[in-house]
Amino acid sequence: MDGEALLAVGLRGEGERRTATGGGSGVAGGGAAAAGSGSRGGGSGMAGGGLAAAGPGSRGGSGVAGNASAAARSGSRGARPGRAGTGADSPAPGSTSATVDSPPATASVSASASQGSLVAPTEDPHGLDLQGARADALLGLAADNLALGRISAARRLAVRAAQADRRWRATIRGGWVGAEIELADGQPQAAVAPARLAYETAVARHARRHIVKSGIVLAVALLAAGQDGPDEARELVVAAAADAEKYELDSLSWVADRVAADLDHDRAEEYRFRSRQVLHAVLRHADPCVMRIAHESPWVPVGPG
Predict the structure, then answer these.
(1) Cα 41 to the chain's mean position, in Å?
(2) Structure confidence at residue 8 as a pLDDT band (50, 70, 90)
(3) How far apart are the first and last CA of the chain?
């Protein structure tokens, strides 16, 4: 689906658009190739290929890092339907960033009848526009390639995503994928910087959902890197678990609880029980394809234990 999205929005950014003289989609051959390279498998969400150590594609990792993020990215694909506050970020109490929850401004892309060129859409400050969609698609493909063990391809796509959009939302999401790439490549020390950038950016923007997920990713990166002992990692993930439960972010709540169970030994059983409970509720609303992937994935604890 990320490949289809990239084909829909085009790989080229501002200043790179070409005139669609032959009714073309505006996607250069390289864009189609990039889309194809990641769209063949290792899908997003709970597709596991290895959410070891903070996200899909991490084929290495062990101990807490391996069990730890049991799909931190799986939480980014939407939460349990019909629950308030699960679909998008909303500002934290007292925040002045009231537009984070707002729907994107309409930004239609139309072809000029006289020249066939694309009309530049209105830019949205939060990245909910064509430019942001392009970055999202590239990051999705990066994660898909990571799930298939194609680390070099994932790096190239992540770089393209960073070039496509440098606003706060893309910066945070790029930090998640950047951390996952480093962890999958056996470079946990290098994973800390992008994970911390994502967390600090999310906090600065009062982006509640992004704060929760960024806290999980940073906690796993710190733990894998052996930095600052387990204290900061434990504080981050316990806070993420509490906020995920408070704001009913179910698709992140079970992940945070799973990580917290490995870091807060006094409440480990409580966290594991809650993780299974929430995950069961999430999967009840999933489509058959996601259900199949979840049951086949070694990283999604759909059974007892």
Answers:
(1) 17
(2) low
(3) 32
Provide the pLDDT confidence category of residue 230 given band limits of 50, 70 and 90.
confident
Which pLDDT tens digit goes with each residue over 191-223? 999 999 999 999 999 999 999 999 999 999 999
Q: Domain of 254?
A: 2-11+29-81+126-296
Task: Compute how many other C-beta atoms are within 10 angstroms of the C-beta atom of residue 111.
Answer: 14
Is the distance from CB of 57 to CB of 49 less than 8 angstroms?
yes
Residue 44 corresponds to which amino acid? S
Q: What total number of domains does the chain contain?
A: 1
Quick one: how far is CA 29 from the chain centroid? Answer: 26
> Residue 229 has what pLDDT?
62
Assign residue 260 the CATH number of its domain: 1.25.40.10
Q: Is residue 162 situated within a structural domain?
A: yes
Domain assignment of residue 64, yes or no: yes
In three-state secondary structure terms, 283 is helix
Alpha-carbon distance of 255 to 73, in angstroms, equals 9
Q: Is residue 292 part of a domain?
A: yes
Summarize pLDDT for 52-110 with one digit per residue, the tens.
333 333 333 333 444 444 344 444 444 343 343 333 454 444 443 333 333 333 333 33
pLDDT, residue 298, reads 80
Does some domain include residue 153? yes
pTM of the predicted model, to two decimals?
A: 0.66
**148-173 burial, b if ≥16 CB within 10 A, otherwise e?**
bebbebbbbbbebbbebbebbbbbbb
